[in-house]
């Protein structure tokens, strides 16, 4: 079945919230331990959009099955051409091509917006699916922050991967 990638809408928030709540409660991609409610997810989405960043959803058969967005990597002005991406897929759709469709669309949006670098901060060195997805989309390994989070009774690493966009660091930004 085809996957449609589109800008998120307010009406997508229940599905986005459900996907993220599952990731928080059962996974290690997010280092949050208490899942946010729909009003908090709405506030976060509005902040991303207000900053001029993309917030996309993947839809299959009329159902939101994943989402991805990017936001400021850090708040200081010198980082303004660098973004951090996030991507989450519904548990029953993992491994079904949602991420492989969603992440390239996000990358394209960011490149068209003039950003120069994406930083992926991947929760847990054992998160092979996310590491592989990012690598297949051109990200390279930039480092590991060992044992920076404690969740589900164990220490978790953060894997850092980067992807230059457009001219990357070869020219000054416009």
Main sheet summary: 7 strands, mixed
Strand content: 25-35%
What is the spatial order of strands in the main beta sheet?
1-2-3-4-5-7-6
**Shape category:** globular
CATH T-level topology? Aminopeptidase
| SSE sequence, one letter per element | EHHEEEHEHEE
In short:
By secondary structure, the protein is an alpha+beta fold.
What can you tell me about this protein's structure?
By secondary structure, the protein is an alpha+beta fold. The protein has one domain (3-164): Gcn5-related N-acetyltransferase (GNAT) (Aminopeptidase), CATH 3.40.630.30. Helix content is 29%, strand content 34%. It contains four helices and seven strands, in the order E-H-H-E-E-E-H-E-H-E-E. It has helices at 13-26, 38-50, 98-112, 128-136; strands at residues 3-7, 55-60, 63-72, 82-89, 117-123, 140-151, 154-164. The protein has a seven-stranded mixed sheet. A hairpin with a 2-residue loop joins strand 2 and strand 3. The termini are far apart. The mean pLDDT is 97.
């Amino acid at each position: 079945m085809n996957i449609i990638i589109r800008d998120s809408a307010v009406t997508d928030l229940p599905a986005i919230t459900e996907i993220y709540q599952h990731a928080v409660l059962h996974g290690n991609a997010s280092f949050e331990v208490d899942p946010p409610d729909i009003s908090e997810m709405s506030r976060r989405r509005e902040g991303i959009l207000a900053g001029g960043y993309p917030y996309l959803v993947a839809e299959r058969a009329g159902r939101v099955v994943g989402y991805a967005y990017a936001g400021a990597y850090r708040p200081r002005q010198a980082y303004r051409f660098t973004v951090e991406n996030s991507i989450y897929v519904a548990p029953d759709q993992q491994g079904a091509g949602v991420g492989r469709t969603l992440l390239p669309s996000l990358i394209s949006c960011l490149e068209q917006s003039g950003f120069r670098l994406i930083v992926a901060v991947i929760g847990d060195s054992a998160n092979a699916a996310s590491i592989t997805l990012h690598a297949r989309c051109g990200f390279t390994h930039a480092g590991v922050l060992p044992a920076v989070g404690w969740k589900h009774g164990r220490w978790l690493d953060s894997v850092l991967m980067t992807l230059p966009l457009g001219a990357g660091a070869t020219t000054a930004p416009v």
